[in-house]
Amino acid sequence: MTSAEGRSSGRTVLLVIAWLWVLAPFGYGVVELIRKVVGLFGG
């Protein structure tokens, strides 16, 4: 593996971790929003 391949692989892992860091709380917020909307309008 060359140095460029190692950096690319490390950058990909960092990018995946960053997206998970953003999407996990966002997904939780969406789930909570749906639960509250169903409770409000669904009875």
The main sheet comes to: none
pLDDT below 50 for ≥5 consecutive residues: which ranges?
none
Shape: rod-shaped
Helix content: over 70%
Order of helices and strands: H
User: What's the β-strand tally?
Assistant: 0
Radius of gyration computed on alpha carbons? 18 Å
Q: Assess the beta-strand content as a share of residues.
A: under 5%
How many alpha or pi helices?
1
Structure class = mainly alpha
Terminal-residue CA separation:
59 Å
Give the integer mean of the pLDDT values.
89
Keywords: Membrane, Transmembrane, Transmembrane helix
Transmembrane segments: 12-31
Describe this structure in words.
With 43 residues, the chain is an all-alpha fold. It contains 1 helix and no strands. The N and C termini lie far apart (59 Å). The model has no long low-confidence stretch (mean pLDDT 89). Keywords: Membrane, Transmembrane, Transmembrane helix. The chain crosses the membrane at residues 12-31.
Write a concise keyword list for the protein shown above.
rod-shaped, transmembrane, 43 residues, mainly alpha, transmembrane helix, 0% strand
Write the layout of secondary structure elements.
Blueprint: H1 3-41
